[in-house]
Amino acid sequence: MASKNYSKKELDILKEVGNICAGNASIALGQILFKKIDLETPVVQILNIHELAKVVNNDEHTIVAIHMETLGAVSGHVLLLFSEKSAYNLMQILVGKTFQKTRFITQIGISSLKEIGNIVISSYLSTLSSVSRLAVFPSCPQFMEGLPSSVFKSIFGAFQQHKDASLILIETIFTERITSVTGKFFIAFDSESMKNILKACEKQLKK
After folding, report:
1. What is the DSSP-derived secondary structure letter of residue 102?
2. What tens digit of pLDDT does each residue of 74-117 get?
3. What residues does each domain of the chain span?
4. 123 and 24 Cβ atoms separated by less than 8 Å
5. What's domain 2-205's architecture?
6. Cα(168)–Cα(45) distance, rounded to whole angstroms?
7. How far is Cα of residue 167 from the mean position of the Cα atoms in its chain?
8. DSSP conformation letters of 157-203
């Protein structure tokens, strides 16, 4: 695994940055839903692109994802992932009880989820930019639905062309227990962007 190329200190820095970013993003989500969001400690993995499939191959249930690219000083992708059940529960909160009658994702539901993704992911990246002092901003949100392996392949397929490409994968699980909404943040950067982030964050965290 590619993590052997990074020291424990560097991985700790990435975990700390991921924790700060996910914390602010979960606060933004909680403010939208008027709910308390519980957050787990981020898991940081440094993966070769061909190891990415191992992360998702064990899950064969359909997921709903909001995807945004990171633009500016770093190149990467941010995903806000929900199971179908959690996505339906979230849309019911956002759209209202009438959503129960349809039980499929309507255009209004998709727009609501994209807006949630836009606010939450933008908060995540804004925090990353503040911590690192790097210019990082998001693209427009994209809605995706399907098996995890298909969703990840669609997003990271371009990396497959680079045999030595590595990704930082920061996974954070968040939960709203009353309405049973559970989701994940996945943020992935290429190896060059990782170097820039580590260098910038290490400098800022020393202050």
Report:
1. T
2. 888 888 888 888 888 887 777 665 555 455 567 787 888 888 88
3. 2-205
4. yes
5. 3-Layer(aba) Sandwich (3.40)
6. 6
7. 13
8. GGGGG-TT-EEEEEEEEEEETTTTEEEEEEEEEEHHHHHHHHHHHHH
